Structures are given as structure tokens and as C-alpha cells.
Amino acid sequence: MPDYTAYLTDIQEVSISESALNDKLFELKKLLERLSRELTSGESVQFPNLFSRLVFLAQQHRIPNRLEWQLQHLRVRTKEIREKNEELVEAEYRQHERALINFLELLSGNKTNSDEGLTLSPQPIGKERTLRVQVQAVDNEKAEIRCLSEKHPGTEVTVRCDALSGPVDHFWEGAQLNLIDFTVDKNGRLLPKLIVLEPDYLIDASAIAECFHDYCVTPMHYFRNKFETPENRSYLLLGNLANFFLDELIFAQQPDEVSFDETFLKSFRQSPFEYTSCRDIAADEDFRDFMRKARTQFENIKRVITEDFPRRGINLHQCTLEPSFFSERYGFQGRLDLLHINKKAYEIVELKSGKLPYPAYDTGKIALNHEVQTGVYRLMTESVFDVPSRRVEAAILYSSGSIPGTNLRFAAGFQQLEKEIINVRNLIIANEHAIINGNNQTVAQLFQALYDTTGTAQKSATFYTQRIEQFKSVLQQCTPMELSYFYRYIRFVSQELYLQKTGDVEYESPAGVASLWNSDFTERAEALDVLYGLSIESIDDSGNDMKIVFRRNHAGNDVVNFREGEICIVYPRQDEQDTVLNRQILKGALAAISREFVEVRFRNKQRNRTFFNENPLWAIEHDALDTSYNSMYKSLFDFLNAEKQQRDLLLGLRAPQAPAIPENKLPYPESIIRKAMAAEDYFLIIGPPGTGKTSIFARRLIEEFYAKENGNMLVLAYTNRAVDELCEAINAAFGCKDENSCNYIRVGSELSCAEAYQDRLLQNISEKASNRESLRTTIRKTRIVVSTLASING
Fold first, then answer.
1. What is the structure's pLDDT at 508?
2. Could you tell me if residue 171 is left (phi over 0), alpha (psi between -120 and 50 degrees) or otherwise beta?
3. 598, 623, 648 — which closes off a domain?
């Protein structure tokens, strides 16, 4: 239970301090947030923001409506004052202070007049494009939802859902909604064009697109794709290669002079593992056939860029490669292949390298999933740049088409498709909510729902039915304990992913991706999680990637919580109005940081310098990726596919085997090393930081295993910093002084690898290989491979 007396003391100290009234209000809001987190710390439900916590606490503690309004108003006014740079007056500050004191007195059981000193009332709803609300009750029969407005404290609204695509029974009490472009009927009920469920949980645009196929449209595709591991097939490699062609041709000063041979070789050297390990192209004849297909794709893309783009008015100097966006309005995130911006329009180009949509003779045909993907990109572009839909155009570039003038296909936007997209997204969110708040039976029911999709799929889609049957057979051969383990860990991973996305944790400092818009910038800066007031010192795109050096100009931002090697988000920020929701963002890795400069490395080079020249000031914030969680889902499914004895070992049903070793009373740490070397299944060495896990044990075990001369080693860690330390241990173990004396391969990219170990990166080793076979030989002879778990999983 919170110490209410301590909170009252804190309020008194704020009150008598000599701080400005604005700063005092900010401190009150911090106290309210801390108190709310403490009061909800034991709850099983999730709270994406302070608004939702206060609504929950008001219901749980039966807070009078008027007091709840005032607490919400304190929250809203803090944000307004920061954004509008207003000056608070004494009388209003005292009202907010009185509201917080009344709240504490009510919680402590003391009698209080909740109306004392409070004069504010609920605010009316005006004309707004987006209104954030929290669900209070759902009426399935009337297709209505009763909600509280986040922006307008104390204002309750009734939302009509009868005109929307899909039912309302997947909404729940406490859910957050965005009401998009609503009107008000004669009875005062809101009628939105779109309702977005839990908008802080951003779904990737490409992931939602894969829920739409001509043979079957269902949110269960999203669920299934979590567990299926993509095959290392030549068509996927060709798709990545086509995108590389696009990037190189757009960046080139003279695209018509770029040659296929040089570009292909450059791609090979950057992705050597993919080219040498893909079985589809292992044989020389298959590889030559792959080269022919790649050359065709290259020539088609080159023709589109040099001929079709100019005809459409697309200026290469105004194109941005792979810009990233967050859209909290619609609940999406994504990275476009190409965005062209001029004063009249925003033009999206998405590259697809697969077969032309059926029938191939229909030169205007666009596959349904591609149409959906561009539809999501349209919504994101509209929301980020705040432009009407008529100013956003989208096209698919089908690079396999060889008929000039037919590669670029216009993707029209229409409202019915947008409704279907949002409806499927909402169903995905409802499934995630069910997993997080349900039990193992809930997960089992979702798998059954996946199996049932074969009944609604087109009868001609036998390949889909076979895929689902194969999926089903894996679970059917499992024991009840294995299924229980599988289901429980799915729930755990889903919960962790939700926390990463929405940031609902008990930390006082902002956390989670959604904190980038749900928390105040000042709060994140005070938590040392922002680099701001940066100016561009230099841009270097002479290598394989782009490096930008920023000058640190703000004296109050000298101490920050950033480390070299971390992934980050970079965006223009001239004032409080610039956020990650209304600006294009760049995703990179922090290469170096000093008191004066910050260097960030980006995968994509940009020919278009307008974006950088127009924005003098920049900010850097922490990024988080879904990839590690996606790998966990796939690893869980791989566990079910493993041999029975391996599953028993991992479940603890079979003890790990180790032959008896003589008691020679070896000194530490050799006694531990001997036991580890004798283990047949696995051996755990556990210890806190600084106990020598890497510098002593990892180094010695690598030495011992390497001395056996009959096996290879895969050395893994979760972070790039830890992998750097492992590389250092290997260098120390074998006395590596230069690149020729070190016999290990590092899997990863230069973006996240310390400079001292970049010569051991596979792509840099591949540059010394004369051909594909010589590279294969080098890989086979190299017995140590070092990587992060994310990099080795692809």
C-alpha cells in the first residue's frame, strides 16, 4: 500500500518551492503518475497510459465523477501547457493541487469533500479528425459503445458502430480506441468512419498485407506466420536482390550507366551467407539460371527508373529510399520501398519481384495483398504528413514484367478496403488480447480457429489446405505436457511483446515504443533517453552504408543513457510540435558517441539531401525491434518439430548426461572447464557480471573445443556488445594480432560491429574470395562462427 503521508509531504514541498508554476504542475503530474502506477502494480490488466490507469482507479475506488474529471484534467493541462508554452496561473495550480490532495485523502479513508475548491466541468467534443477514447461498456445488440474521452476529461460519448465492417464483440471494457473522422447524429452519438482498436499496438504494414489473399482473407494468417520459419529459397533471395538493385539505381548519379555485373557482385559480397547456403542455387547450372532471372529484373527496374519515372514526373533527387513511419492514428508502422515528395503529391512505389498477378495479360492487375500493403502505406502517409488522401498516390513496381510500360501499376485507394484492413487489424489485436489475458485453452482455441480457415478458403487452394494440415500434424503428435509448455510460452512471449510495444510497465521513466508519443519529451529527456538539439556535421556515403555525424549542441543534454552499438531512431525536431508521429524517421545504429559528437550509421544511402538540408535540428531516441520476439515464436514451433529425446531433455524429463570424471582436485577454474568439456548435452555456467563468464570460461572453452580438431563452434550472445566481448576473448585465446591470424567468422553487419572486429565479418571476408566456391571453402574451413541470436536467425 502506498505511503499516502509521504505523498502529501511531497505535494507540500512542491507547493512551497520557488519553482515556476508550470514546473510545479509538472511535478504534480509526476506524483499522480507514480501514485497511479503504485496502486495498479498488482493488476493483471494492461494500462497503455495514465488516462487508462485513472479510469481503472476511478472504478476500483469509486472515485466521485467530479474528482475523476479533475485528475484527468491535471493530466491534460500538463500536456497542453508543454505543447502551447502557456503560463499557468496561481488559481488553476491550486485547483490541481487540491484535486490530488482530495484523491490521497479518499484513498487513505479520510472523509473529504471532493468538490472543495474544484470548479471545472466536462468539456464538449469538437470537430476532430481523431478522438482517443476508452471503452466503458459494449452493447452488442445496439452495436454501440459507451466511452470516455481522453482529451476531454469527464466527457462520456456513445459511439455507433452499425456502419462499420465487422462486429463490436471483439471490443472489451477498458480497451483504447481511436475514432477516425466521426460525425455526430441527431441524438448526439458519434458515428466514426473507422474505429482503431488499441492504436498504440503498431502492426507492421507487410504483416497485415499477408492476411489478404484471394484464396482466403483472415487475421489467422498473422497468427500462423508467427510460427512458420521462412525457407532459404532462391525466390526470396531474388526479392532481396531486386530491392538492392532499386536502391543502387536510385542512389547512382547516372542510373543508365550502372552495370548488372558490378551491382550483382556488390550484393554477393554484402550477403555472402545467403548466396552460399541457398540449396536452390547450389549447383552451377541453377546458379546461372538465377543469374539470368536477376539480370532480367535488373534491366526491368533500370528501364522503369530511366524511362517510366520521368514520364510520371518522379524526380530521383526528390526520392527517399526506405523511409520509416509510425502511425498511431491507424495503429500501423512500416517502411516504404520508395517515397517521392513534391509540392503537389506524395508518391509511394512498392517493389515486388515475384510472378505477375494472374492473369498475366491483364497489365493493370494488382494482387490483393499488394493492394492492401499500399493501402496501409497510404493511411500512414496521410496521417504522418497530415494531407488529404487525394494528395497521396501509390504504385506497385512489378520487376518481373518484361513489357515496357506495364511494370508500374497504379493502386487506387477506396474506403471499403480501408474498413476491411482496419477490421482485420482489430481482430488481430483482439486475438493478442485474448492470448495475454486468457489461459492455455485460449491459445488452443486460436489454433483450432486457424485449422477452421480451410473451410472458408477457396477449394482450388489445395496448397493452403496442405500447409494447414502439416501445421496441425505437428501439434497432434505432441504430448499434453509439450502442448502445455508450448501454449504457456506463447502467452509469455505475447505479454512481453505487448509490453515492448505499449510500455505498460511499472518503471517511473517512460518505456516501450508507444512512450515516444504517450510520454512528454521532457520526461524522456529527464530519464536520459533522448539526444536532442543535434545538428548535422557531416554525411559520408562513400562506403556500403551512410554515416551521419551529429554535433551535440545542448549543454543540458551531456549525460545520456546511450551506448555504442545500440539501435536508434533519428528524426527532425525543431520544436515541441515535431514528434515521431508527424515526421519521417530514420532507423540506424549508434556507431560512436563522445561529448561533442554522435555518429549514426544507416543501412540505406540517400541521394536526396533535401530532407537533411531542410531540417537544422535533430533528435535521437531508443528503438526496439519485434524480430527477437518473432524468433521466439518460431523457436517454440521448432521445439515441437525436434526429436522426442531433445524435447524430453529441454522439458527436464530426461536429465543431461555427463560421464564420470576422476576427482583430480583441479584448481579453479580448470575444475569447471573439465566438467563442461565432459558434458554430453549441455552445461550451464551462471554468474553475475564481472565473474569471468566471457573472459575466463568462454575463452578457455573455445580453446579446448578448438583443440579437438573434429568439430565446429557456434558462439552466440543476445547483444552486439556481448558478441564484441566474445570476439575479444577469441582474439586473446589465439593471439590474434591481425586479420590473417584470426580464424573465426562474425555474422552481422558493420552497423553493429565494433571496428576492431569488422575484418572478420562474413561480408568483408567474402570480398577476398575470387568466386563462390572459394568462399564456400573458406566457410567450411573456418571452425568458429560468432553472432548474435538475432543475426544468426536472419
1. 59
2. beta
3. 623
